[in-house]
Amino acid sequence: xxxxxxxxxxxxxxxxxxxxxxxxxxxxxxxxxxxxxxxxxxxxxxxxxxxxxxxxxxxxxxxxxxxxxxxxxxxxxxxxxxxxxxxxxxxxxxxxxxxxxxxxxxxxxxxxxxxxxxxxxxxxxxxxxxxxxxxxxxxxxxxxxxxxxxxxxxxxxxxxxxxxxxxxxxxxxxxxxxxxxxxxxxxxxxxxxxxxxxxxxxxxxxxxxxxxxxxxxxxxxxxxxxxxxxxxxx
Length: 234
Description:
Elements: E1 2-8, E2 12-19, E3 27-35, H1 50-69, E4 74-79, H2 81-85, H3 89-100, E5 105-106, H4 109-124, E6 131-136, E7 141-146, E8 153-157, H5 161-168, H6 176-198, E9 205-209, H7 211-219, H8 224-228
Parallel strand pairs: 1-4, 4-5, 6-9
Antiparallel strand pairs: 1-2, 2-3, 6-7, 7-8
Helix pairs in contact: 1-3
């Protein structure tokens, strides 16, 4: 069965087309991405501005055309941080459904963390032992820990790369004082959740997903093989 998975994130709208069969791993067949940057289209009330809603609708329509062109029998649509936290989320979701027929399912932060953890567990297998998962998106940071497919702890923090850049680093290049203030903010946010994870002991394997981590790895000089073997979640 050919499926399309439509991910409306804070930065991009990503359609991944896969061939899925019971008992077999899904095989990627096509990827269609559009940069939307929804997190940057919020007005002063925290609502997605009318222009942003129009762009979202147009982008979803384009994704549907791509899914039809690639022979998808079903499209599984979901949205994450940017839509989840918009003050007019219900109205936006209703318009998208009315004008495209797509009923976007909004994942909670914890659901997003748990699903990303499941993907990492399936990727690395049981031999990886206790996994600590870190995933940075445009609007949020997901952290999950566990030894099974369902993590023992999973949280979502408002520490996405796009959100922090827009809210804390107005200059280009960033001002040193702004960077220091952002570091204090991030450490304070993470410190509130450290205890929830440290009680489970040390992980056997730490997994960092997303393009943000890939870019950081390149800056840090990671070898090509290490970069290529890192799983990515959008």
